[in-house]
Amino acid sequence: MSTEKMMEGKVAIVTGAGRGIGRDMALLMAAEGAAVVVNDLGVSVDGGESGETPAAEVVREIESRGGRAVASYDSVSDWVAAGRIVQCAMDSFGRIDAVVNNAGILRDRFFFNMSVDEWRAVIDVHLNGSFYVSRAAAPHFKTQSSGAYVHMTSTSGLIGNYGQANYGAAKLGIASLSKQIAMDMKRYNVRSNCISPFAWSRMIGSIPTETPQQQARVEKLKKMEAGKIAPMAVFLASDAAHEVSGQIFAVRANEIFLMSQPRPLRGIHRGEGWTPQTIAEHALPALKSNFYPLETSGEVFSWDPV
After folding, report:
1. Residue 302 is assigned to a structural domain of this protein
2. Is 149 a catalytic residue?
3. What does the pLDDT look like over 223-241, one tens digit per residue?
4. 181 — phi, psi (to 5°)?
5. pLDDT given at position 303
6. What would you report as the CA-atom Rg of the chain, rounded to the nearest whole angstrom?
7. Residue 94 belongs to some domain of the structure
8. Which pTM does this prediction carry?
């Protein structure tokens, strides 16, 4: 097994890196040789002020281990502020090699009760934030003809969950954003991939547990360590993943899954075209056996993690 540090000489930005999954990714990036911009607003799960400085604490931890890091307190959900996050890397370390879009909030509520503010807040942080930070880094990646994006998607978007219309829409949007970035930036030797993490975090701890199904889902997630996600992030950000782009990986405890992406399942043709009546009479019976059930993420991943 190689002992070479996979991020030696690299500079990485990790957003939402003050706690949880982001913190573990920042620490491992640094342990693998990267200089790290530890970005975190220091806010609560719902986006409110917490008055803490977790980013600074992570920086101190990295430096105490002989690594290099700098704290950033700008918001990913603001275009100008996101630009400052990237500029922080350039000012502090002179370049940027990897962006990990991890910052996130939850405002779970059933769709029929969800407010416009709850919708916008989650979309702004997850989807807009991933675009803003990625877009700010793009000119630097183009100039140096290298770079890697790692985005965090979720089975809440890829599969579905109750009470997460805002979060699921944002996370499925991120999967598509990653694919488009991979296609547009391929000519500049820039890669873009997604991780769909299963891990206990402050965000997961805020999920409502009003039903036995919700309680079982959260209890299962409590057993999954946030640190298990970091190795995949480091790999995707490193040169070892130079052939990997446009993919979605789910990481659940010691399991790694390559997730499917939408492709045609079955098609039917009618020479004279279709009417609403013939769709009901002929198309529906032919296609129905391939319909996807309304399953939640927990129902699809129904076995215990190993």
Report:
1. no
2. no
3. 678 889 999 999 999 999 9
4. -60, -45
5. 86
6. 20
7. yes
8. 0.91
DSSP-based three-state secondary structure for 15: strand
Domain hosting 82: range is: 11-258
Domain membership flag for residue 22: yes
Domain contains 268: no
CB of 189 closer than 8 Å to CB of 145 = yes
Identify the active-site residue in 73, 132, 167, 188.
Answer: 167
CA dist., res. 261 & res. 250, Å (int): 13
Q: Where are the alpha helices (DSSP H) in the chain?
A: 20-31, 54-64, 79-93, 116-123, 129-144, 155-158, 165-185, 202-205, 212-222, 230-237, 276-278, 284-287, 297-300
Residues in the chain, overall count:
306
For the chain, the domain total comes to 1
- The label of the residue with tokens 């500029």 reads 87
Count of CB atoms within 10 A of residue 102's CB? 29
66-86 mean pLDDT: 98
- For the chain, give the percent of residues with pLDDT over 70: 88
- CATH number reported for the structural domain that contains residue 182 in this entry: 3.40.50.720
